[in-house]
Design a protein that fits this description.
Blueprint: E1 5-11, H1 17-29, E2 36-39, H2 45-55, H3 64-88, E3 92-96, H4 99-109, H5 114-125, E4 132-137, H6 140-158, H7 171-174, E5 182-186, H8 191-207
Parallel strand pairs: 1-3, 1-4, 2-3, 4-5
Helix pairs in contact: 1-8, 2-3, 3-5, 4-5
Amino acid sequence: MPRGLFITLEGLDGSGKTTQIKRLAAWLEGRGLAPVLTRQPGGTSTGDRIRELLLDARSTHLAPMAEMALMFADRAQAIAEVIRPALEAGKIVVCDRFTDSTEAYQGGGRQLGSQAVLDLHRLICGNLQPDLTILLLPSLAASLQRARRRNTREEAQTGKNENRFEQEQDAFHRRVWEPERVLPIEGDLSIQAIHERIVEAVEARLELAPAPEGPHENSPA
């Protein structure tokens, strides 16, 4: 069976990823395609426990290397439990964040460097790469405002505060993206305008003949 399509969405907290993932999922379902939706950190029972530790504002003394190791532990579990089985079954996987976020936040924001992130991705994740990455880059001020409003609402409802990474969001602006894989959508566009850009990019990928697994996943060296 041909390998499925792996789509990731990246961007600042408050950039609108959740809204666009819901819209993309509805668009795919309307065409008879049932996407598998997941997120990182999280998306599995183990990953949700790691997410709670990583994003909790009370996790104040987490060493940068420990933080990155937890990110990759979560990712390895998600690949084994959710992403790889879905792709091998020929399904479309839509993931909220992937290794690009780790390269931006831990590689850039924590100054651990891109090479350490890429080495861990190769060794732990088998170098699994998305077929398409949508990068949402609205203005930093607008993103922060939405993120803080969301975090305040969720903290009131659940008692959890997940705003630990807010101060490092500009790391995304320093990241060097792969133009053949990453579609950046910059500026404070309307929800509908962003959705239309995403749909156009996904349609282009769906029209391509499914690629074999080999070019997307390389065995660890």
